[in-house]
Write a structure and sequence with these properties.
Radius of gyration: 20 Å
CATH superfamily: Glycoside hydrolase 144 (GH144)
Structural class: alpha+beta
Distance between the termini: 5 Å
Largest sheet: 3 strands, antiparallel
Number of helices: 13
Mean pLDDT: 95
Helix content: 40-55%
CATH class: Mainly Alpha
CATH topology: Glycosyltransferase
Length: 408
């Protein structure tokens, strides 16, 4: 769908501000990026210098976008990529290549007794692979990226009896009990794990996790989680026009298109409770709320719903459904911009009825909007990630062309 000039300018401004977060909130010596910070750029005491691996994966991708768009000196951007990859390769604590979820931004040391996180490592690796392909002819970057990827022992994280990926591990208690048993953001983890040159999990493990189905009104799709579970994997994976083999034969891109449209319809069905929702003002996904961080927005439960709007719900689906997501972002900007739009773009969440506005922004939420907007505008993130020979080989083994149309 071609963008109107005004919409393209708005997305450019949103994207530049998101990149500003990833530049300013990274430690200049490690490249590790804050998990969250205040909308004015100052961290709360409880979160001071706490970085996340997922946020750093989005940051590496953001650096590639900024490099291509020349948003600042390209030599400075390239140097930040190198600093980040060198730290990850040589200094960042890990175990068998897996990284801890939350770490100190300055030292990389584990914090909060957190786990080695399989999904956060995968999100980081997605950024590493993107940087490798963006700078594929550029000095040390490709080799550093490959070393970081090759070091991860994916088979170690595979639960033997089920052939499902585990969610994580802690030094004292061992593996977490939970596994990735349903279709969620684990699609990205699964693809990266199967594509490893050194420790690949079996290709058949792709078919082990359940594709849990859900219906609302005339919409039927798989994946009962909030919208981010559809968005995060396909911010990097371009699965448009493809479907996997039996027994699923699923077009994952179109599935996410349907999931986004269903989510909007579900929000509109709640207008008697939350009259602020409208065809151009909708969207809830895991975010902060007035009562704290909530993994909300799933259509199977109204728990904690209170009329809050989360900009990255629609912003993260720009690449799927620009016809309904772009008007939502424009409405937020035009009607509430004075309240919710700051140096890094939209506040993480706000309530149009009560005028509550989250005082913080989250790296992963800014990141998904930036990547989704870039895929809509140029498809660059998709092109970089999918140009990896390792990823391309696995995609060719798993998927076949779908006869239905791909993107709008």
């Amino acid at each position: 769908m071609p963008l109107a000039a005004g919409d393209d300018r708005l997305l450019d401004d949103i994207s530049r501000r998101a990149f500003r977060y990833f530049w300013e909130q990274a430690d200049p010596h490690t490249g590790l990026v804050m998990d969250r910070t205040r909308v004015d750029g100052f961290a709360k005491n409880r979160a001071r210098d706490i970085a996340s691996m997922a946020s750093t994966g989005f940051a590496l991708t953001a650096l590639c976008i900024a490099y291509q768009r020349r948003w600042m000196d390209v030599n400075l951007i390239r140097e930040r990529v190198l600093i980040t990859l060198r730290h990850l390769a040589y200094e960042q604590p890990h175990y068998l290549g897996w990284f801890y979820h939350f770490v100190n931004r300055k030292t990389g040391e584990r914090v909060w007794d957190c786990e080695l996180s399989s999904i956060d490592t995968a999100l980081l690796l997605a950024g590493v692979i993107t940087a490798q392909q963006c700078f594929v002819e550029d000095g040390d970057i490709p080799d550093l990226a490959q070393d970081i990827y090759d070091r991860v022992d994916f088979l170690w994280m595979l639960e033997p009896s089920t052939q499902l990926m585990r969610m994580g591990w802690k030094p004292v208690s061992g593996f977490l009990k939970s596994v990735w048993g349903n279709y969620r953001e684990n699609v990205l983890l699964q693809m990266i794990a199967m594509s490893s040159r050194t420790h690949p999990v079996p290709i058949g493990s792709w078919y082990r996790f359940r594709r849990d189905s859900i219906s609302f009104d005339d919409y039927s799709f798989v994946g009962r989680g909030p919208l981010f579970t559809h968005q995060f994997p396909q911010a990097w994976l371009d699965l448009s026009g493809l479907r996997d083999g039996p027994p699923f034969h699923l077009d994952y891109f179109q599935n996410s298109v349907i999931a986004t449209r269903a989510h909007r319809a579900y929000c509109l069905s709640l207008r008697s409770l939350y009259p602020s929702y409208s065809p151009d003002l909708w969207g809830v996904t895991a975010s902060d709320s007035e009562i704290g961080y909530v993994i909300w927005g799933a259509m199977t439960s109204r728990r904690n719903w209170d009329g809050t709007v989360v900009p990255c719900a629609s912003g993260g689906s720009l690449m799927f459904t620009p016809d309904i997501c772009m008007p939502a972002l424009r409405t937020m900007y035009e009607q509430f911009g004075d309240l919710i739009y700051g140096p890094y773009g939209f506040a993480d969440s706000f309530n149009p009825a009560t005028r509550w506005v989250n005082s913080e922004v989250l790296g992963i939420d800014l990141g998904i909007v930036l990547l989704s907007a870039e895929n809509l505008r140029t498809q660059r993130v998709w092109n970089w990630f999918m140009s990896s020979p390792d990823i391309r080989k696995t995609v060719s083994r798993l998927f076949e062309p779908n006869e239905t149309p791909g993107r709008l």
